[in-house]
Amino acid sequence: MTEKNSIHSNPPYGMIAILFIGAFVAILNETLLNVALPSIMTEFEVDATAVQWLTTGYMLINGILIPASAFFIQRFTNRGLFLTAMTLFTIGTILAAVSPTFGVLLVGRMIQASGSAVMMPLLMNVMLIAFPVEKRGTAMGTFGLVMIVAPAIGPTLSGWVVEHYSWRTLFEIVVPIAILSLVIGIFKLKNLTPQRDIKLDVFSIILSSFGFGGLLYGFSTASDHGWSSPFVYGTIIIGVVSLVTLILRQMQMEEPMLEFRIFKFPMFALSSAISIVLAMAMFSGMILIPIYVQTVRGFTPMEAGLLMLPGALVMGFMSPITGRLFDKYGAKTLGIIGLSITIITTFYFSKLDMNISYTSLMILFAIRSLGMSMVMMPIMTNGLNQLPAKDYPHGTAMNNTLQQVSGAIGSALLITVMNNRTETRAEELANKAMATMDPAMSQQALAEMQAQMMNEAMLNGINFSLLVSTFIAGLALILAFFIQRVGTDGQINNKKKASSSKAVVAVEK
């Protein structure tokens, strides 16, 4: 029995659990701080532009380091990589918790991100190595708990903490978990992934940083500065030029930092396309619905966070189940059903008004989460299954990078659509009000009318943006009909071809 088969027959569940905990707390931190930003602004006396760097900077570091994770995973042992990443993450968390100034907090946040960036690709790669194709769906379904649930729980947890305690508690909660994961990892982690003696191309790292970093920063700041800002379109242009140069360079290298030739595998390319489109639609719900709940309806951040909690729990409950269903039925069936649920619920969200109850919103969001839980991991796993084992690090790095970039693009696009629609509707309402307004109206009544018009205009903008999101999800559904199941040998299962072959054999006999 080969070492590979031995690993397959006895997957290292204990080691995966350690990686699982480390990745969970690392990914949780990506959204944990969003609700706490106003409190941090007050304490350190900084403006919204400065405080936003706590989330934008975290995302940028991830966008720069995740593409390089393919090199790190191939060059270094999974044990050494995990311990280094977890040490950096722990140091950053402690520094953020005790930070006396905003600058120290920002540095701590960046160090956190440098550790967390490699966690997701590392865990995914270990699971691909540890489990055979026929059991990989169940394993990756469990992994979905990290990928989907951790970011969803972040706002709820931070909303509750900030309402009752200091924002520093958000980091203080994570510190003991991170230290425990690190200590257990020192004693229990073993090396599983194969190493290759490859050299890092520094120019590729620079191109990757400017390419993915430029795109992420440009799109993520478009909603604040506007698309006409030279700072926005300038960074996007730099990102596109750098990314094209990076791709051309990687295609000419024998040992590329990030292997773009993996897109020649049709199911991986298709799964990536669906994941990109779905990430754009998914992030819309995580951004637009809280805006509606807090700005239009006036609910507290805590109530907005709790609204999404049942959806996160549904995703957590369904992820392992979806994994087992994937092993049995494949990604196509799950993808079509899940995307249909996602499209229908997103369409209903595009018809929000001022009277829909909090409970109805919570139930609708939970059903939408159910649909999404059936799509992301099965489709991604089906694509990764077609890759040769040596390309797993590149596949996991590519998937995580594309999700970061597409999420930023989707958010920027839909926020822009919302803002433009809100402005147009506000002008329409203002013109209509001017024609019928009583000149003797008091200042208070005028202010109330203006506030009501702005609320109505924003509601219209949110609904239109969610309608656009529905059509984006519809594109993912169309692509899902082209999914084919990948077999244990990495080949696409073609039942018609197999049936024809049996018929020919029968005729020959």
TrEMBL record:
Keywords of this entry: Cell membrane, Membrane, Transmembrane, Transmembrane helix, Transport
Protein's UniProt keywords contain Cell inner membrane: no
Lineage: Bacteria, Bacillati, Bacillota, Bacilli, Bacillales
InterPro entries linked: EmrB-like (IPR004638), MFS (IPR011701), MFS_dom (IPR020846), MFS_trans_sf (IPR036259)
PANTHER family hit by this protein: MAJOR FACILITATOR SUPERFAMILY MULTIDRUG TRANSPORTER MFSC
Record family assignment: Belongs to the major facilitator superfamily. EmrB family.
UniProt keyword Phosphoprotein present: no
Listed name of the protein: DHA2 family efflux MFS transporter permease subunit
Species for this entry: Oceanobacillus halophilus
Single GO cellular component term: plasma membrane
